[in-house]
Amino acid sequence: MIKTTNLKKLYRTEEVETTALNNVNLEIQAGEFVAIMGPSGCGKSTLLNLLGLLDNPTDGQYRFLEHEVSHYSERQRANLRKASIGFVFQSFNLIDELTVYENVELPLLYLGVSERRKRVETLLDQMQILPRKNHFPQQLSGGQQQRVAVARAVIGQPKLILADEPTGNLDSANSAEVMQLLTGLNDTGTTIVMVTHSPSHAEYAHRIVHLFDGHIVSDHLPEAVRV
Ligand code: ADP
Ligand code: MG
Q: Which atom of ligand 1 is least distant from the CA of 195?
């Protein structure tokens, strides 16, 4: 599903040039659950942004599904992104002015889906957040907001979920709930790539990729399941 070849990302500002990713070669098959770990600043979010077609690499190739996307325009990337990828962020990134229902409905509007109400309400019910459908994000706890964000990420039935420290702002009970949601999605076939600082959350994954200074330094099974 994902294959990067010598993927490179430089950020240039007036004073400095930062090599955020340097020759990253990563292959991920459909159905995998991969955790990305590594110290702050090592390039985890940059990698997720490139994999998620939010940004273009400076150099190298990226094949996503059957598309060679490294030279795609912003519009081409947006079209592929909205049809295939759902995002979950540490800070939830819900739209404060929209209700829970409207936040989750939004991807379906972008996809031009006309029969939305039943689909949104069924998912909100599964996520145990239906009674809050007319509330605004600020009226919810962090755990509830992240459940809404996961619902928004999956409503369009994306093939790939990218989660950047999805439990970073949650207490342990809410974190466990989000990890169970992600595990359940992976069990039904959704590919998941998740950045995390938590070794215990990384153990939910089938594979852990460690980054350091823009490079992959290891790529293996989590300790808990290694034979
Ligand atoms: P991580 O998510 O692992 O903490 P990032 O991918 O956010 O790391 O950042 C990798 C490196 O790139 C860091 O040195 C960071 O300061 C730099 N960086 C990230 N985004 C930008 C940007 N938009 N402009 C300039 N430098 C950036
Ligand atoms: Mg980051």
A: 2
